[in-house]
Amino acid sequence: MRPTKSMHGQWSSNWAFILAATGAAVGLGNIWKFPYITGEHGGGAFVIVYLLCIAVIGIPIMMAEVMLGRRGRQNPVASLQTIAAEENKSGLWRLLGWSGVLAGFLILSYYSVIAGQAMAYIPRTFGGMFNGVTADGAHSLYQSLTADPERLLAWHTVFMVGTMVLVARGVKSGLERSVQFLMPALFLILLLLVAYASNTGEHFTRAIHFLFNPDFSKLTGKSVLVAMGHAFFSLSLGMGAIMIYGSYLPKDTSILKVSVAISIADTLVALLAGLAIFPLVFANGLEIGVGPGLIFETLPIAFGHMDGGAFFGGMFFLLLVLAAWSSAISLIEPAVTWVVENKGVSRVYASVTLGVITWLLGVLTIFSFNIGSEWKLFDKTFFDLLGYVTANIMLPLGGLFIAIFSGWVMHQHATREELGIKYNFMYQLWRFLVRWVTPVAVIIVFLNAVGLIDNIKDWLHY
Ligand code: PHE
């Protein structure tokens, strides 16, 4: 008999699952990362590739992960192992769970440092530090924060402690309640920021143009990889976070509907963030490709000039930190459940231990912003390299194998039963996407990014 419930509990309703999974998906990826990588990769064309990846790779993989989680009802490692055993397939599939646990833990180590920076901006903004600030002023205020390892470390510590406390308390009390009010509030404040940005007239039009008018000549193989990687990162896919949330999902929930709802909400938040930020970039003559500091250098300008800016700004950073928090929980949840299930220790013990290790690793990211900014490998700082490898390689690879597992390893009747999609053609479409589209797309994007496709083209030419 397969368990009908996870030993860690179950969501009280579909709504609770949607909230929690949206909480996992919406975070720094949408508001901090999406705008700055869009800036670095030239706008429109990059955005289109990203949206395309959400639709044809992201949604099917999300469905696959929720399905695998609900069927396995354990941590990702054990879930995959159990399902593989049911299908008489190799137990090695648990390695896929492992790579997810590792990716989540690696991502959290730098995620927490960035969330810490956002946290530092809460008192800064509420306290009116940005009143009347110029673009140069906002730039140097951000620099003064990142140049100081001790301050970054303090905020990183606060964020990690908060995260592990919430994780230690477990699904029911910790995760569910925290997201209920958060998402609507975040959404509202983003709308307010977009409304403010729309006052910049031609700059707003230019921002729309930049975001939605594709210039494919700007698109390189690397940009396509970054766009695809970000689709995984933003939807929290490829590492078992959504799988673990799926393991708490009641039996009768429509996986199709919840996956589509979560993906739409996540994408909307990212687009709103872009619409709030780029008009400010243009209106203040800022450089679009500044990188990870983009939101910290642009939004304070808006908060420094709008009525009630200190309050709204402070609220914005507060909500951003809370959104990051609900994502952070999901990054470490797979590792925590694995330790609890395998080492026979309490949830609290597992959370503390993993929290300390993650915190330690985060210190290297902190140094990437200051004393270690010259320590480079492949021309990247530790933080850049970790971000690149996790989001653009580990998550898509995880997604590739999840697709292969649910499309090729599992029997049709098993996936059909667990997904429970009413319309056959929808089920067939899903199956086609995970069997063919995702694997082929991920492989092509990888090959393209390392330049192999260009080489083949050249070679065919001569
Ligand atoms: N999706 C989160 C964000 O956009 C990050 C995340 C990635 C969370 C992977 C969990 C798993 O901020």
Describe the structure.
The mean pLDDT is 92. The chain is globular and about 65 Å long. The protein has one domain: Up-down Bundle (Amino acid/polyamine transporter I), CATH 1.20.1740. The relative contact order is 0.19. The longest helix has 35 residues, at 309-343. The chain has 462 residues and is mainly α. It has helices at 14-25, 28-40, 44-72, 76-86, 94-126, 135-146, 149-169, 171-179, 182-198, 202-212, 221-235, 241-246, 255-283, 294-305, 309-343, 347-368, 382-409, 412-419, 424-449, 452-461. Residues 24-25, 27-30, 104, 107, 233-234, 236, 239, 241, 327, 330-331 line the site of phenylalanine.
What characterizes the major β-sheet?
none
Note the total helix count: 20
Q: What share of the residues does DSSP label as strand, in percent? A: under 5%
| Average pLDDT over all residues | 92
As residue ranges, the low-confidence spans are none
- Tell me the count of domains: 1
Q: Strand pairing plus helix content: what structural class?
A: mainly alpha
SSE order, as H and E? HHHHHHHHHHHHHHHHHHHH
Q: What is the gyration radius calculated from CA atoms?
A: 21 Å
What small molecules does this complex bind?
phenylalanine
CATH architecture heading = Up-down Bundle
- Report the top-level CATH class: Mainly Alpha
Shape: globular
CATH topology: Amino acid/polyamine transporter I
Helix share bin: over 70%
What is the tally of beta strands?
0
Report the span from N to C terminus. Answer: 61 Å
